[in-house]
Amino acid sequence: MTYAKEKEEIDFAYKVRRAMTESSEKLPEATLERLATARQLALSRKKEAEPSRALAFGGVLAGSNGVSFSQKTWFNKSWFALALLVLLAGLYGLYEYEQEQQINDLAEIDAAVLVDELPPDAYLDSGFNAYLNKETPPAKTEE
Fold it and tell me: Which of 44, 59, 84, 101 has the highest local Cβ count within 10 Å?
């Protein structure tokens, strides 16, 4: 909306208000009393305004309905603590399993080195590593 259009609308609203005020001063006394009575009746029927509930970041988590965590009962809090405890136990179990797998893999490598006919110093020789990495053509079989 442009500024000129807004100004026109505001000017029109002021003109309407002024015209209504002037015409209300010319109403007969009986009409004014009936209007006052109708206003009082309308105000008496008005419902009381209830305070609105608005929580700014009030514990809004995935699956939460906006109720703050502090408003939950101790039973609900214990379920949350139990779920957190199970999660931590599962993560610890995964960590221990991975550590055990790593230890087993290293033990297999150590066993292979110790059982092999080569001395362990051969694995430290850089020339030996180059020899292992070198691709050898398959042997030709005589027919």
Answer: 59
The pTM score is: 0.34
One-letter amino acid of 140: K
CA distance 73 to 65: 15
The residues, any chain, with a CB within 8 Å of residue 66's CB and separated by 6 or more, are 55, 58, 59, 60
In the numeric block, which tokens belong to residue 104? Answer: 């087993």
Token digits for 14? 């002021």
**Would you call 13 exposed, middle or buried from its count of C-beta atoms within 10 A (0-12, 13-18, 19+)?**
exposed
Confidence of residue 100 (pLDDT cuts 50, 70, 90): very high
Neighbours of 59 (CB within 10 A): 14
The helix or strand, by DSSP H or E, that contains position 91, with its residue range, turns out to be helix 74-115
Return d(Cα 37, Cα 31) in angstroms, integer. Answer: 10
